[in-house]
Write a structure and sequence with these properties.
The chain is of the alpha+beta class. 43% of the residues lie in helices and 12% in strands. The chain is built from 17 helices and 13 strands. It has helices at 2-13, 17-50, 80-88, 92-108, 110-117, 123-132, 138-152, 157-171, 173-184, 207-222, 230-245, 279-285, 287-292, 298-316, 355-358, 385-394, 439-447; strands at residues 65-66, 76-77, 188-195, 198-204, 327-329, 341-344, 348-351, 411-414, 434-437, 451-456, 459-463, 469-473, 476-481. A hairpin with a 2-residue loop joins β10 and β11 (459-463). α6 (123-132) runs parallel beside α8. The chain is globular.
């Protein structure tokens, strides 16, 4: 035993002092970071408590009281998120989510709130719990809060989170059934932007469709040459299915005698054409195998490929689907595309050398960007389409401080309000007096007490109702000025040291 203790002591002794100091510094920094997050959480709730709006102003678009959180949380003036978003250097949607989570935590999870404020639970972990309980009524939420509080004393957080979903279901089974019904109507498939030359795909499908898609990808992947990893071939299979519907690609089906391949009605026919299949019909080729997870007979895969090949013919009728893909590429990159970068609008960026692949099978129209100075001002309130296009190229996102919404999804705002009584030739609608604003940002400017000027085309100077000033351009946002801080900085005051207990008598 003494030898073991000696070896342990020796191993501790060899740790260099500089490393020990680094560990101590890291521990201090981590504790300070957690304390800062708690301080920010408390300050955010204080902002919501102190924020007030006028209840006498009633006009279209004016500020309203809204309940950011769930049942049991207070109503707050909706424009509070504009000021918070700018201070947090984020978009208003992100700020709105932070307000929702903070209010849910304080008012619907009192035990978890106390643990978070005490530094026992990180803020981000507490927010995961509040998000999971967002659809519950307050009484049910309080029950889940009690279960989390008990489990957190005994279990690590990942284990607690694995049980939260079950507690949410048990807290209100009727509501859980209703959410399941709503989920059925909120299915989606999203193809995300281009990152490193590839797109991510996310989806929410019914259980049956999800199993069917998984089965379909496995079948089509099996028909592809085995030159890549299985998961890579499944990804290729999804692209094959998509391009088949568009009439672009061929699917190399397994070599099967023609007499074994049925038509869509089940009769025999010639081998399928080179058009690729569609996953939905393939699921119908062997429904029991898809739904129950049973092993599909070998002929089922061939049946599916044959039927789907004919579906591709039927959908495309020999004509590729028409769609618009806008690609921005600098002409200086054309001679050496391997060194240039192209932007695929609404999707992301690719190497200029990859543009040929992106536009494969497309009819290409070259459209140079317009010279803004060549656009004549307009006396009409409506913005000409060509001017709107030029504006979106100059300022591609919402020009509110730290805005994130794409300009094409924004209102086109007149920086200085349009005067319908101005004389002809005033030219109020021009690029020096226009800017894209998200609808919420537009309302904040009109009814929220924020002021904006456009000293140079494409540069916007904002002053918030609280006195903060920001400069926004296509490059981003910088805070230009802070208001004078109040003399009583209550958030910097330290708590007095605890009183020492009196000695016993």
């Amino acid at each position: 035993m003494s030898q073991s203790r000696t070896s342990i002591a020796a191993s501790i002794a060899v740790v260099p002092a500089v490393l020990s100091d680094a560990y101590s510094a890291f521990e201090h920094a981590h504790a300070a970071k957690r304390a800062d997050e708690v301080a920010e959480l408390i300050a955010l709730c204080r902002v919501c408590d102190a924020y007030a709006i006028s209840d006498t102003t009633v006009v279209e678009g004016c500020e309203r009281l809204v309940r950011f959180g769930g049942d049991g949380t207070p109503e707050v003036g909706e424009f509070v998120v504009a000021e918070l978003a700018a201070l947090m250097r984020c978009g208003t949607d992100t700020a709105r989510a932070q307000v929702r989570r903070a209010l849910n935590l304080r008012h619907r999870h009192p035990q978890l709130w106390e643990a978070t404020v005490a530094g026992l639970v990180p803020v981000w972990q507490a927010f995961l719990v509040t998000d999971a309980c967002a659809g519950l009524a307050q009484d049910a939420c309080l029950w889940v809060d009690a279960q989390v509080a008990i489990a957190s004393c005994l279990q690590p957080f990942p284990r607690v989170m694995r049980q939260v979903e079950g507690w949410v279901l048990a807290a209100d089974p009727a509501a859980a059934a209703e959410r399941a019904a709503q989920a059925e109507s909120s299915r989606y498939v999203r193809v995300e932007g281009i990152v490193d030359g590839a797109c991510g795909v996310s989806a929410r499908l019914s259980a049956g469709d999800g199993l069917a898609l998984d089965d379909a990808l496995t079948v089509v992947a099996a028909a592809l040459p085995v030159v890549e990893d299985h998961e890579v071939r499944r990804a290729t299979a999804l692209g094959v299915l998509a391009r088949a519907v568009l009439g672009q690609d061929a699917l190399l089906a397994p070599e099967v005698p023609a007499e074994e391949l049925p038509t869509a009605q089940g009769s025999t026919s010639e081998a399928p054409t080179s058009e690729a299949p569609s996953a939905l019909v393939l699921a119908a080729a062997a429904p029991s195998a898809v739904m129950l997870g049973a092993e599909r007979p070998a002929t089922a895969a061939h049946d599916g490929l044959a039927v789907l090949g004919r579906l591709g013919d039927h959908l495309t009728a020999g004509q590729p689907r028409r769609a618009t893909v806008v690609v921005h590429i600098n002409r200086v990159d054309l001679p050496a595309p391997e060194r240039g970068v192209a932007e695929v609008e609404r999707w992301g960026h690719v190497l200029a050398s990859q543009v040929r692949e992106v536009l494969s099978g497309c009819q290409v129209t070259v459209r140079p960007i317009l010279d803004p100075e060549a656009l004549a001002p307009s006396d009409a309130y409506e913005v000409p389409e060509v001017m709107r296009f030029a504006l979106h190229q100059r300022n591609p996102v919402d020009v509110f401080p730290f805005g994130t919404r794409a300009a094409r999804a924004c209102d086109t705002d007149h920086t200085q309000p349009f005067d319908a009584g101005a004389p002809p030739g005033a030219g109020q609608t021009n690029l020096t007096n226009l800017g894209p604003l998200a609808r919420f940002s537009h309302r904040v400017k009109t009814h929220g007490g924020w002021q904006v000027t456009q000293p140079t085309p494409g540069t916007y100077c904002w002053r918030s109702r609280a006195g903060y000033e920001y400069t926004v351009s296509a490059a981003g946002t910088v805070m230009a000025r802070r208001p004078t801080a109040p003399g009583d900085r209550w958030w910097l005051r330290e708590e007095p040291p605890p009183l020492e207990p009196e000695p016993p008598a």
